[in-house]
Amino acid sequence: MIERKKEMGRDRVSRLVSWGHWFAFFNGFLAMIVGVRYIETVGAPESWIGWGFLAISTLGHFSFLAFIVYLVVLFPITLLLPYSKILRGLAAFAATLGLCILLYDTLIYDDYGLHLSPFVFDIAWADLNALLQGTSYIVTPLGIIILELTAANYLWKRIEKIRKSNYGPKVVLVIGLCFVSSHLIHIWADAADITEITRLDDAYPLSYPATARSFMESHGIEKSSKAQDPSKLQPSLNYPISPLQCSADPELNILMIAIDGFRADLVDKETMPFLYEYGRHNHEFKQHLSGGNMHNSGMFSLLYGLQGSYIAASDLSYRSPVFTQELAKQGYTLARFAPETSNIEPLAIYQDMTSHIQPLTNGVADADIQSIDSFNQWRMQQDKPWFALLNLQSPDSYDTPIGFLGIETVKPSTPLKPAQKVLFNQYRQSLNFVDKQLQKLIERLPASTFVMVTGVSGKVFTGDNDNQRGNLSPANVHVPLIIHWPGMEYDKKVTYPSSHYGVVPTLMTQLLDCTNKASDYSAGRNILQPQSENWTYIGDNLVFGIYQEDEITVIDRHGKYRIYNRDYSKRLRNKKISAPELIQVMREGRRFYNH
User: How far is the first Cα of the chain from the last one, in angstroms, to the nearest whole number?
Assistant: First the structure.
């Protein structure tokens, strides 16, 4: 009798375990249906290779997730409480909870481009009303729980028939092959740079596809460097969102002078007397921020007008700024004058311009002089409206030409270390050199020239490039902006906040007569009017800061953040991140992907 009871108990547990596996498979199938929402966000594949990989990875991934949930949650209960009614109810509840979390994750991924984590959940909780609209958040869980209870009972009543059909091993084999094959295919795709496959890496939650990169590098095998035709890559950006509608009759020449390492607080009478007076008699923006603290991110925000999180978008390897595209379309001759610069990102940023690049053989200051001379020669040869980007880099390197007689040293207005004092005064010499060059340059320009002088980034007094990259203080991003508009008289200072993101919209609407909304092609707004946004994004896709009225939040790519006061002098250790502003930042970082 005792043996009979033990045998019946083992049989009951065996039936429950078998039922649990089929119930997990059913929920894996439901999870695949929910997973379609992720594909709507990242975009469907365009080739049979992409569709094939997507099919087997979806089947393998969601089936595996469902089985893990069963193994962790239901299997222990099966052994402790082997009663079908209890287990079916708990299983239906657990499956409903899991699918609701998955649905919530699809909403967050579509809106923010991130999957659920403690950090993301904390932010999304503040935005719950916007994410959960209508009554679907009530109706959907009720519908799922009814479906789960029905499926649980249906499978239990037919479990013996299902077991006798002997389909179980075949299903396990197919799912196992799909799971293993998806990882093997991804290893090949990663090694061969098959973007159609690798772009799906982060599409699904808890997805960690195997790669061959580290293995190949450790064995001295070079990754395939075969370039892919950009036109065959899956488009990732819709930029601009709507076709541009512009109708200008080019009359003005446009000169944009962008200076690397250009602090706003040192455009004064003693250091830069010419530019100081020039600013007083033109449109001078006193609270202007660059979009970055390095050359690439600063130039990206100035010419593209896009948030720095887009800087590594694959499309921008071959898609130039809409601003320079439109200039070329309207008949402007475009040229760029600059010293040699390595590692330009994105690759297409200067694509519409003829580049006149000067070697650094005799230093950066000498290259700046040659750039200005080259521009003057080029300008004299033009017989139609032109656009010129003149990039000067002396201040960023503290450089002056041999024999330059500068200005006397002064005491810094803020306390500095001895080494920083030396850099501070050498920096002033470099600014004074640039000021003299600007005077000779601007005074010779034709009257019909629109002139803009600004900084690519600010400057902190350090020789450590890593320190400068991580420093998002006002000293490193607060730059001058002075605009001379022929035919307009200005004698005022603009004291409301502005940024590089607003430069392109201003030029597009005021000079090129574009009627599109600025949001069609930029993250900024016309800087001739105060902005409604109470935050500014500073940085790139790796490290960025959110500038607000009273604080600066610095965030790295792992989600770790630090909050400082407005002048960056004190870290606010007990302050929590401002969720509404971060949500807006994340949405802006997805906006050109979502349309």
Answer: 70
Query: CB–CB of 527/536 below 8 Å?
Result: no
| Predicted TM-score of the model (pTM) | 0.74
Asked whether the CA dihedral 51, 100, 206, 181 is positive or negative, the reply is negative
Q: How far apart are CA 182 and CA 210, in angstroms?
A: 9
CA distances to 58, 63, 66 from 23, in Å = 18, 11, 9
- 536 forms beta bridges with 547
Q: What is the pLDDT of residues 260-274, one digit of tens each?
A: 999 999 999 999 999
Gap between the Cα atoms of 103 and 309, Å rounded = 26
φ/ψ of residue 396, rounded to 5: -65, -25
Q: How far is Cα 259 from Cα 459, in angstroms, rounded to an integer?
A: 11
Amino acid at site 105: D
Q: How far apart are CA 540 and CA 291, in angstroms?
A: 9
Q: Compute the average pLDDT of residues 473-484.
A: 95
Question: Whole-angstrom Cα distance, residue 264 to residue 423?
Answer: 17
* 371 contacts 335 by C-beta, under 8 angstroms: no
Its sign, for the CA torsion 297, 299, 302, 305, is: negative
283-325 pLDDT tens trace: 999 999 999 999 999 999 999 999 999 998 888 989 999 999 9
Please give the single-letter amino acid code of residue 279.
G
- From the list 23, 103, 25, the residue with the least C-alpha distance to 64 is 25
